[in-house]
Amino acid sequence: VRPATQLLRQNWLGYAIAPIVLLALTGCGLYGGHGTAAQVVRVTERDFKISAPKHVRAGDVVLKVGNHGPDHHELIVVRIGRSPLPFRTDGMTIDEDAVRRRTVGALDPAGAGATRSLRLRLAPGRYVIFCNMSGHYLGGMHRTLVVGR
Amino acid sequence: VIRRAAPFRPFAVGSRRPIAAVLLTFALFSTVSVAFSIRATNRSQNRAAMVEVAARQRTLVERYVQEVLLARAREDAAPAYTAALLEKSAAVLLRGGKVPAVHGDDDETELAAASGAPARAQLQQEARLVRDLTRAGTALLAGRPVESVPQTAHEHITVKNPVRRLRVLAALTSNVSLNAARTIATSTDRNVSGLITLQIVLGIAGLAASLLLGWALATVIRRQTVHFRSLVTSSTDLVLVIDEDGCRYVSPSVEAILGRHEIEVLGDGLRHCVHPDDIPAVEAAAAHGDAHEVIFRVSNRFGEWRSLEAHVTDLRRDRHIRGVVLNARDITERVELEQELTRQAFHDSLTDLPNRALFRDRLDHALARSRRGNEVIAVLLIDLDGFKHVNDSLGHDAGDELLRQVAQRFDKITRTGDTVARFGGDEFAILLENASEEVAITLAHRVIEEVASPVTVGGRDFSLGASIGIVLHRGGAGQSEELVRQADVAMYAAKEAGRGRFEVFRHDMTRQLGELLGLEHELRLGLERGEFQVHYQPAVDLGSNAIVGVEALLRWTSPTRGSVPPAQFIPVAETTGVIKPLGEFVLREAFGQAAQWLRDGVLPDPFVMWVNLSGKQLTAGGVAPLVLRTLAATGLPPSMVGLEVTETAIVEDGPSGARARAELEELHEHGVRIAIDDFGTGFSSLGHLRRLPVDLIKVDRSFVQGIEHDAKDAAITANLASLAHALGVLAIAEGIESEGQLESVRKLGCDLAQGFLFARPAPAETVTRLLAEQGRRVALRSAYRESA
Predict the structure, then answer these.
(1) What pTM value is reported for the model?
(2) On chain B, which terminus has fewer CB atoms closer than 10 Å, C or N?
(3) Chain A to chain B Cβ contacts (< 8 Å)
(4) Among residues B626, B551, B550, B530, which one has the least CA distance to residue B583?
(5) Is B152 helix (H, G, I), strand (E, B) or coil?
(6) How far apart are CA A129 and CA A127, in angstroms?
């Protein structure tokens, strides 16, 4: 059980700050199309599927990740190499250590309803975005992103 | 805007409401707090059980996969039992109910349905995945293709290997179970934090409300305390609490009343302030507490005596007080007024000598001493010859001056223990105690000498004569009235024998005098012959100027003596007993006349027929039956009849005085009105007056005559009027002769007036005319008023 104060802060401040964060993020999105600002890419997670545009321009990218639930989900972005992504010995999850050098970004697990942003600098190439909670990758939660110039 | 006065509320009620409000607030906040705590605890318990069951699902999922694999390898396993447990638990988590026990592991648990949208969504997902998992397991064991099992939880499993496929499903299920448990646990945290928040809010609100109400309560109590304290401190009354040890409490008003500090009066201090003569009374009150009223004197800061009248309340048994409470009022002014009035009542205002009443009082005392010690008492009654001449030729002022000088001379030639009094007019009296005939005669010679030596008044010298009657009382029983009358007889004898002489009373003088005057016989004869007549003098209400009564006055027109004034024949009638038939005659006449007027309809409302009663008539007894009989005979209502009595007659001690008072009381109860005639010339104490049934006080004509010029007379009249009002009776001024006098008595507070200015005493016919005229005026006025 977490201390009451922390809970309070989380409950109250969370709801109070959420619209402000949203507004800030929307602002970024609005101005994203105009030259220097980062490109915003909407990514939707749900049991057990990830939706995202197939093609993304190289450069600064902000992944706006919304979890539509009902289960918790995380997001890992890994550049696709020559070999396929290796599984851990349990055969249920990708071996994140093995692909660490190719990993360009990750978001920790979050519950349904959460919306988070992941800022990345993407070089041209092919990437896979996936949820690595036990069984989720194999359950269908992975998607390929093609980053072009 | 006039604000409506707040409704009256007794003090005690005010403080109950805030107390009740404080208690209610506490009760309300406590109830809410406890209810929320119970609810939150119940919910937390339920959620804890849910978390446990959700976590158990994870274990069961893993166990199920193992059992399927074991069963597939033909090992001993019961995957169907675990599948049923899984499905049933998932359903109960979602919808509530009894969670089945895992054999040998735990007990059945009762759960409420899950609440909260996120948790419910996860549990629904879990139920779907459990179904997919168990179906996959069943298919695997049955040798059917696992791929053909529908994926109802939106999973998109592309793995071909049936076991791995089963394990992916198990991982998904296990994961969602874990996360559902986390969500429920988080909401439990929220529940607890909500409870804590609520408790904090309730605590603060409750504290604030209680503080507010407590403050309100304190304010109310403070206001009440201040109220009561200011009631006590601002009161002009002095509150003392005393016991055997002295004064235990004195209210702060002691500063205002006595100019003394509380410390000076507390404890033994009170004893030092109280007049030595009054200490026994105060001590008696403190010791017994049963006296209702006690009057005592206390010295103020300047050493002056202030008279306090205290109401005594015994609160020694009251544990808050434990003493006798004296509620005292400063009555010094009243006492001084009483003393002044008493002094005025006993002294002649012109010469400052004792008056007839005081003389009688001293004579009574002297007689009492004489009875014990056989002392000789001498009374000298002196009448100035030739005084009337001075009065007529030089005016009243000169006459008054002459009387003052003569009085001073008398004072000079008497011993300190002797009493010189003025009986009124030019009549003086001297009382000698421890005297002898020689001493009395020597003094009589000196009086004649002193009066004979010239007196300078208004630049002219006057030489007067004095006729002196001497009576000697040589011990034994005696009546003061009798002695004065005998002195009077002796004086008459002296006058008859030629002026400027004295005579010592002898018993044969009375007869001689009676024969000389021959009045008794003539009075009886006159009564038979109808020589007596009743005249009526109207009394006027100073407010409305209307006639509100008449005084019946007896007139005697003798064929030989002509018109004889009552002052001459009434004393003879009293001495000889003719007063009885005369009194009856007056009552009959006056009541009959009033009844006649009533029948004729000329009487105003209110109206009182006033009849004089002589002192002798009263003390002889039988007045009440006589008056009631006459009233019945004439049919006059008792409220229209008033009796005028002299003060001396009704304050007389002894059985006859008591009987007179009782009879007056009886008549008063019937509605007959009582007036005190010639007021201010004979009371020993005002206390008597309070106890008598009196409706009206007559202010003597002697005060009214001097009212315009003599400040003393005006002051006396004002005092008498205010005294009358204080006693709740009316004051009537007699002998109004001028507009100036009328204005003065009106200004000084008299209610009614009588005198030549309004009307002289007149026969019934004349008064009938006056009453009829007034009736017509009143009728005319009211007719005008109606038409207007």
Answers:
(1) 0.41
(2) N
(3) 89
(4) B626
(5) coil
(6) 7
What lies within 8 Å, CB to CB, of B381 at 6+ separation is B423, B427, B428, B429, B468, B469, B470, B471, B484, B487, B488, B490, B491
Cite the DSSP H helix spans in B235-327.
Answer: 254-258, 262-265, 269-273, 279-288
Q: At what angle do helices B764-787 and B579-600 cross, to 10 degrees?
A: 30
Does B331 reach chain A within 8 Å, measured CB to CB? no
pLDDT tens track for B560-585: 878 888 877 887 787 677 888 899 99
**Residue B85 and residue B103: Cα distance in Å, rounded?**
10
| Cβ contact B154–A69 (<8 Å) | no
What's residue B5's pLDDT?
A: 43
ipTM reported for the complex surpasses 0.90 = no
For residue range A55-69, list pLDDT tens digits in order.
999 999 999 999 997
Chain B residues in contact with A92 (beta carbon < 8 A): 167-168, 171
Q: Establish if B116 touches chain A: CB-CB under 8 angstroms.
A: no
Residues lower than pLDDT 50 in chain B:
1-13, 684
Amino acid (one-letter) located at A102:
R
Distance CA B167, CA B148 (A): 16
- CB-nearest to A139 from B157, B189, B196 is B157
Beta strands in B219-319 (DSSP E): 238-243, 246-250, 293-299, 305-315
Q: Are B384 and B399 in contact (CB under 8 A)?
A: no
CA distance B342 to B270: 30
Interface test with A, best of B51, B152, B155 (most A CBs within 10 A): B155
Contacts of B189 in chain A (CB under 8 A): 1-2, 7
Rounded to a whole number of angstroms, the CA Rg of chain A reads 17
Binned at pLDDT 50, 70 and 90, residue A33 comes out as: very low
Beta strand B562-564 pairing with B502-504: unpaired
Task: Flag if B155 and A71 touch (Cβ within 8 Å).
Answer: no
Taking the CA atoms of residue B601, residue B604, residue B605 and residue B611 in that order, the dihedral angle to the nearest 10 degrees is -100
